[in-house]
Design goal:
By secondary structure, this protein is mainly α. The chain has helices spanning 15-52, 60-78, 82-87, 91-99, 107-128, 130-151, 163-176, 199-217, 227-243, and strands spanning 2-6, 181-188, 191-198, 264-265, 271-272. The longest helix is centred in the N-terminal third of the chain and has 38 residues, at 15-52. It starts with a strand and ends in a 6-residue tail after the last strand.
Length: 278
């Protein structure tokens, strides 16, 4: 299921969510720039090696392989590499617990993470407040990264991505807005259906079928996805907001009745107005 929008309107401008979105995009563009420059470095290195060997051509495959090696080394420097954190444990290695949250493997990885943050992050920020929300986001991400390190400390594969932090946001949303609804795009055989579902159902399906079930059947060192980082991020976010649920009660402005043309939540937290449609 792909979320398209939720039924809860924010009462404040989500400056912090926009900032996090912007920082993630900016860092990814910087990654692209670094990768491009490393390709140039690789080309020069291979050209020089070809000259020393007396070759009259530059092997394209050699350039590509060298560029991949250089970029992998760069990711090892800024991504979280458990075995290096365990072996060295210096300030630089511990810093990767944080820097790894802003790196992404490709555009699809980035877009998927930021889309979920866009849909659900503004409401959580509205309830927590701008600065506490940023601190909460970072704490969830650190907890997720730390868990992945603890589960597979011998891994030499860099862990990157904002998924753990965003999973924390989803867990918080589950607790703070249990009666919200989410308009989703659901593939049914060869067709795509628009379906409005309770946020609780959507988030639990995401948690169980996209994280908990794969984690149960996939060894930590295999699969390429940090399922346990997602699981712990989600649980940390939900637990934090559940413990503070009395302090995080909806403000009066959040309980207003929204126009029937849009649909929304009434003063009792029930869905009202016509169903969202396209």
């Amino acid at each position: 299921m792909i979320p398209l929008r939720d039924s809860v309107r924010s009462s404040t401008t989500p400056w912090a969510t926009w900032l996090l979105l912007g920082v993630n995009v900016a860092v990814f563009l910087y990654q692209w720039l670094v990768e491009s420059r490393l390709e140039e470095v690789a080309a020069r290195e291979v050209l020089e090696a070809s000259r020393q060997l007396g070759l009259s051509f530059v092997p394209a495959e050699a350039v590509s392989l060298r560029a991949q090696e250089l970029y992998a080394a760069w990711l090892h420097e800024w991504g979280l590499v458990p075995i290096e954190l365990r072996r060295f444990g210096g300030p630089g290695e511990y810093a990767t617990l944080f820097t790894s949250m802003f790196l992404h493997a490709n555009w699809l990885h980035l877009a998927g993470n930021l889309w979920f943050l866009w849909i659900f992050g503004d409401n959580v920020e509205d309830r927590l407040g701008h600065v506490p929300y940023v601190l909460f986001y970072a704490a969830a991400g650190l907890a997720a990264a730390g868990t992945q390190f603890a589960i597979d400390p011998a891994s030499d594969v860099p862990m990157i991505g904002a998924s753990g932090a965003i999973a924390g946001v989803l867990g918080a949303y589950l607790v703070l807005f249990p009666r919200a609804r989410v308009l989703t795009l659901v593939p049914v055989f060869f067709f795509l259906e628009f379906l409005e579902v309770p946020a609780v159902l959507f988030l639990l399906v995401w948690f169980v079928f996209q994280n908990l079930a794969p984690a149960a059947f996939t060894p930590a060192a295999e699969g390429g996805v940090a399922y346990w980082a997602h699981i712990v991020g989600f649980v940390v976010g939900a637990a934090f907001c559940w413990l503070l649920r009395r302090r995080l009660r909806a403000r009066p402005i959040e309980r207003r009745a929204y126009p029937a043309s849009w649909g929304g939540v009434d003063t009792h937290g029930r869905w009202r107005g016509r169903r969202l449609g396209w």
